[in-house]
Design a protein that fits this description.
about 675 residues, alpha+beta, Immunoglobulin-like, nine-stranded antiparallel beta sheet, about 30% strand, Fibrinogen_C-term_domain, signal, disulfide bond, BpFREP7.3, Fibrinogen-like_C
Length: about 675
């Protein structure tokens, strides 16, 4: 029966190891600016599946936003494509991810990082219904100043003030005289099965007659969890909250080694990593020295064999306990016999006890009354505790509001001071302007008198000038209407974009402002209202609408323009509200019999050169693909494809598939989104 019970306990203990669930873990769960080097938040799915979800689509890590009063997504992982989106940027952080996990590491966490974190998964159940599940974990911030934290601060200050002037020979000599030894019972520990003991020892190997050294403190630290335990000279051991046992002693005598030892009886996975043994030594000449050793430990999950061994050990202990019980039964039998003899002695004392019992009875009544009063008092205290907790929360909110108000008042005071300064300056300027105005008024009066006489003389002359100007303007107007511009270099217009008909009869849109103007725009996309997934004939002749602002001038027209003179090419792009451009001093499109081959070179700009890759390539469309890799259909565009592209400005607008988007790889690869504006234009060389 005992063996059966232990086996049931064993299978209950290993059952959670094989379940599937959504897990969020934070290490450590309490952070402090003094001792926490990093905060790790792990969001994962055990056994690659979650109960009630047949299909898992995405995994998202969020944290609570006090301003929004809701959880704000930090990063999201598409489990179907393994596409990770980082929605919140951190100054010092690292993100890793895999098939079913996201791990966020915040280096040097602050009080703002002490928050509630949520791990959520989205998918579908066996009935094809969309479902989402989540798990939350809180990280607390420790602000109380403890003796341990104050000691760390003091040693940091002492270390900064210490002027260490040791040469390499001195350092070698010290290392020969002093030594720190750091050891553990094992480098690989089974989680929740094996105990862990770490011992940090300080030894004085050789005593220098001219110099004495005194150990001031010993520390055992963890790379993530901070200080595990420490001991200062003539002080007791200080230990963390998770330790079961910590002991140590600092000896003045070189005959005894000073030591600090910590023991975990129940080791967790979070105790894995680098441990440091640190000794702070003060020398007789005033120098301070720090000696340290590192030890790397790994806490691993126990195997089924390990758990079976534990159960077998427990069964052995049960057998030993059974033997002890049998021995105790014999002892109890002897004790009963002794008690029987002593019972007779007790009966003789019963008479005396009767009177005592009456006294005890009255005392019990008094005790019952007192217990009732204590119960009432406990209920009263419990009620007041809830009220005090509510008041404490209200005070915290008020304190935060007061801090914000103080900050606003400080800003307003600065603004008021600045306004007062400006008002004083403006008053001085007004006085000066008033003086200037009085002088100008006198001058204006004099000018008016001169103007009246001048006006009389100019009246007749004005009529003659107006008549001559009218004739000249009429002549210029006739010449302008009769002579259309040869190119956009001859177009002067106050509008940045204007549509004109050139002397050749070609209707084009001109850019009159960029880099001095004079550009003929042959490709423009601003909002995706015109479909650019067209065939060979439409790209040859051109398509789109100048009024809408999206068009392609046509490869035949571009060939005719670039075959007569040398042209510069400029490409303007906008990505996430940031403007970019690429300019080329060599650009030409060959004829249709050459499949509108592109010649391009001489790059300059800030967008990166993503067009040179396509130099000497033929133009391809879905119905006439000249690329060796047949790129037009899979990339959903028309371009001078190679195998396949570094740029795809005629791709699908707003596509959810990266390879089909309107891309300029030198900038869009990093942003992982397509551009939101593209304009290709040419201008003849002067």
């Amino acid at each position: 029966m005992t063996n059966l019970l232990l086996r049931l306990v064993f299978f209950q203990s290993i059952l959670p190891l094989i379940t599937s669930e959504l897990v969020i873990d934070v290490q450590p769960d309490i952070i402090s600016a003094e001792i926490t080097a990093q905060l790790v938040i792990n969001c994962s799915i055990t056994n690659n599946q979650v109960q009630h979800l047949e299909v898992i689509r995405s995994l998202t890590l969020s944290r609570y936003n006090q301003t929004l009063r809701d959880f704000e997504d930090i990063t999201a992982l598409d489990l179907l494509t393994l596409n990770l989106k980082q929605l919140v940027k951190f100054k010092h952080s690292q993100i890793s991810f895999g098939n079913v996990f996201i791990s966020l590491t915040l280096l040097y966490p602050t009080q703002l990082d002490a928050n509630v974190y949520r791990c959520s998964v989205k998918g579908g159940d066996p009935n094809k219904k969309d479902m989402s599940l989540f798990s939350k974990k809180a990280v607390e911030y420790e602000t109380n100043s403890t003796a341990l934290i104050e000691e760390i601060r003091r040693y940091k200050i002492d270390e900064n003030k210490c002027l260490c002037s040791l040469t390499s020979n001195d350092s070698t000599s010290t290392n020969k005289r002093l030594r720190v030894n750091f050891s553990g019972n094992s480098e690989i520990i089974k989680e929740r099965v094996e105990p862990l003991t770490l011992k940090c020892t300080f030894q004085v190997l050789n005593q220098d007659e001219n110099e004495t050294s005194s150990l001031q403190s010993l520390y055992i630290l963890h790379e993530t969890n901070g200080v595990i335990a420490n001991i200062n000279k003539d002080q007791p051991v200080l230990q963390g909250s998770h330790l079961k046992d910590a002991q140590g002693k600092i000896f003045d005598s070189r005959l005894k080694d000073s030591y600090l030892q910590v023991t975990w009886s129940n080791v967790k996975f979070s105790e894995s990593g680098k441990y440091f043994c640190e000794a702070n030594v003060k020398h007789s000449d005033g120098r301070a020295e720090r000696l340290s050793e590192m030890l790397i430990l790994a806490v691993v999950s126990p195997t089924v064999d390990d758990l079976v061994k534990v159960v077998e050990k427990l069964l052995g202990q049960v057998d030993e306990d059974t033997k002890h019980i049998q021995e105790n039964k014999q002892n109890i039998k002897h004790i009963k016999e002794d008690l029987k003899t002593k019972e007779q002695n007790i009966l003789s004392n019963t008479a005396d006890l009767n009177s005592t019992q009456q006294t005890i009875g009255s005392m019990k009544e008094d005790l019952a009354i007192n217990q009732h009063n204590i119960s009432s008092l406990k209920e009263y205290v419990a009620a007041n505790l809830e009220s005090l907790q509510s008041i404490k929360e209200d005070l915290n909110i008020q304190q935060r509001n007061i801090i914000r108000v103080k900050e606003d008042i400080a800003i307003n005071q600065q603004n008021i001071s600045s306004i007062k300064t400006e008002v004083a300056v403006n008053e001085e300027n007004l006085i000066s302007l008033q003086k200037d105005f009085n002088i100008q008024q006198r001058n204006i009066t004099s000018i008016k008198e001169d103007f009246n006489t001048f006006y009389k003389n100019m009246s007749s002359l004005q009529e003659i000038i107006i008549a001559n100007l009218s004739a000249t303007l009429e002549k210029v107007k006739n010449q302008t209407e009769l002579s259309p511009p040869i190119s956009c270099r001859n177009v002067i217009n106050k509008d940045e974009r204007t549509v004109v008909v050139l002397a050749s009869g070609l209707k084009v849109m001109c850019d009159t402002k960029t880099d001095g103007g004079g550009w003929i725009i042959f490709q423009r996309r601003i909002n995706g209202s015109v479909d650019f997934y067209r065939g060979w004939q439409q790209y040859r002749d051109g398509f789109g609408d100048y009024n809408i602002g999206e068009f392609y001038l046509g490869n035949e027209n571009i060939f005719k323009l670039t075959s007569t003179r040398k042209y510069d090419l400029r490409i303007d792009l906008v990505l996430i509200n940031q403007a970019y451009y690429a300019q080329y001093s060599i650009f030409q499109i060959l004829s249709e019999k050459d499949n509108y081959k592109i010649n391009v070179g001489g790059y300059s700009g800030n967008a990166g050169d993503s067009l040179l890759y396509h130099n000497d390539m033929y133009f391809s469309t879905f119905d006439n693909d000249k690329a060796s890799a047949n790129c037009a259909v899979p990339k959903h565009g028309a371009w001078w494809y190679k195998a396949c592209y570094e740029s795809n400005l005629n791709g699908k607008w707003g596509s959810s598939q990266r390879e089909k988007e309107v891309n300029w790889n030198s900038i869009t690869n990093t942003a992982r989104v397509g551009v939101s504006f593209t304009e290709m234009k040419i201008r003849e060389r002067e």
